[in-house]
Design a protein that fits this description.
Rna Polymerase Sigma Factor, Chain: A; mainly alpha; 192 residues; single chain; 9 helices
């Protein structure tokens, strides 16, 4: 089938072709909706890279699950997926920023009987981050110990800033889980 012919088909006809693994039908769907979905998603997230990630995930999901998903209205399905994935991503961003602030602004008072000294915290962090994948650990150290910006780290490793942010998110998530006990003990000694 010629690509021009496919442009004239409506969404339901394209979905039928998509289920028969027609890559051109997928390409028409992608081209038909990508720009509008990108604008919609970017307005929610206020971040170009995240909006692109969300759309990539949606379109990959449609292709991979084309045999299993039942779509009655393609446009409604795409915009609902974009909204839900954007909101989910937005929640992750807010949670991550909050956790990052907690870790960076963690203040240890010497008055507490069971307080940790800074060297204890650093050695605990080093022990926790020792189990991270090599690249993730390097990015974490460059960011937290050497005070490199995300842009500088991205340039150093020749990767995108979004990849740096994702690696930092994973590292901080790992640190947060591992330090949850320590923070609980610290907070209980400060407030009780």
């Amino acid at each position: 089938m010629a690509l021009n012919y496919l442009h004239d088909l409506d969404d339901s006809q394209l979905l039928i072709l998509l289920k028969s693994e027609n890559e051109l039908a997928f390409k028409v769907i992608y081209n038909r909706y990508w720009k509008r979905l990108f604008i919609y998603t970017r307005n929610i997230l206020n971040d170009k890279g995240l909006a692109e990630d969300v759309l990539h995930e949606i379109f990959v999901n449609i292709w991979v699950k084309k045999d299993d998903i039942e779509i009655l209205s393609l446009e409604k399905y795409l915009f609902t997926s974009a909204k839900n994935k954007s909101i989910s991503q937005f929640r992750k961003m807010k949670f991550t920023a909050f956790d990052d602030d907690i870790i960076q602004n963690l203040c240890l008072t010497p008055e507490a009987d069971h307080s940790l000294e800074a060297t204890d915290l650093k050695s605990t962090l080093e022990r926790v981050t020792k189990n991270l994948p090599t690249r993730c650990k390097e990015i974490f150290y460059m960011s937290r110990y050497d005070s490199y910006s995300n842009e500088e780290i991205a340039n150093h490793f020749n990767i995108s800033q979004r990849t740096v942010e994702n690696q930092l998110y994973l590292a901080l998530k790992h640190v947060r889980v591992a330090l949850r006990k320590v923070v609980t003990i610290l907070l209980s000694t400060l407030f009780f």
